[in-house]
Amino acid sequence: MSQNNISAKSQLNDKPSSVCYLDGSYTTAWSLAQQFAILRLSPTKSPWGPPWDITPLKAGKAETTVYRPIKGSRADKAERARIIAATYARFYLETEEHGNPKFKGRYYWMALGAFASKTVACNLESFALKSSTSLGLDTVADRLGKGNFWLFQDIAATHWLYNYDPETCLTGLEKRGSPLHSLMEHKLTALPWAPESLPLLQKLKLSAYAKNGMRLVREIEKTPPSLKKYREVQLEHLLAIADHEQREVLQKLIYNDAEFVRWLKIQREIDAAADDVIAMPPMPEQDGPLTVAYALKLLMPPMKLVFAAACDSEDKELESKPDGIKDFKLEDEGKRMKWIGEAANRFHDLMFTRADYMEEQLKIMANWHKPTLNTHQIVLKQHDLWCML
After folding, report:
1. Among 116, 159, 261, 286, whose Cα sits 20 to 30 Å from the Cα of 240?
2. What integer is the mean pLDDT of 235-242?
3. Of 161, 145, 162, 131, whose CA–CA distance to 83 is shortest?
4. Where are the domains of the chain?
5. Model-level pTM?
6. Where are the alpha helices (DSSP H) in 175-286?
7. pLDDT tens digits for range 299-330
8. CB under 8 Å to 189, separation ≥6 — which residues?
9. 229, 233, 239, 242 alpha-carbon torsion, rounded to 10°
């Protein structure tokens, strides 16, 4: 591999006659990439808090830490969604590990993904989800957390490997989903929701959409930003990765889940009932129901994507809603992809017409998480090559 990241001599290996063998195989490459994704959602000093299992252990004379993400509470999932949004923004801005500012703009989906993960955080922080989880009805929060977590394990690891070694990533795309090194394989299968998620995702095997999207990153790199083709390839890359994350990851993980779909239907029915009351001719005796209807509309998580670091904006130009799609259902893949296409085009326009604003918002989100150590520094602080025991 092109990065000389394992040249330091560990001071923690006190095992007599022990030897650590390293190789440049695809198994090692994807194990390193997966290690990044797991560590990023493990112990952190993020201002959003540490929803993680942090267990000190003794390894000989050295003290180490178990890095182990957990499902966590609704609030924990919201905090994690903000860390994911920050990481996606950092990838786009080329401030993530091994990033190259020369190529800022190549990870175009990551910019859109940052706004999407922020939206997950906002929904998890909404009054409706706070209320439902306090009553023990945590299906929606659980599925949102699961989808966001496993999409990150899938797509962030792939982008990290491209940052780390583009050639190994591109030539090794077909190897994604193959067994990792035994310890990393154990950690992967022990992650939250792993028993039901990994089989559905074929052990994180990349779809044709994802492979095409990653190859288009190289095309973006080779195209001068001054050419019209540059933005065309950016959008093509974004849509390819969007097809992967929506059709191959989220559809399988959450939108085919009968219990999750049941709650989406309940939300639609509540929203429609409130709309019916609001649409009725004003009558004096209707004040009570009308007040309740408006309250429900305000309290339910809105079905929209806002291109701002904040959860909402008064600037309607920054919104994308599926209002114009007849009989829209979030779980309907075809209808959802139509909305995703519309949102992608709105995002694409804003990245051109309001480029400074959009970059400012991405920088705000990127600052939600500032790692004090990179992956390799964390590994070298542990007592073995793979720090997660």
Report:
1. 261
2. 98
3. 145
4. 69-256+300-366
5. 0.86
6. 182-189, 194-200, 208-222, 228-243, 258-279
7. 567 789 999 999 999 999 999 999 999 999 99
8. 195, 198
9. -150
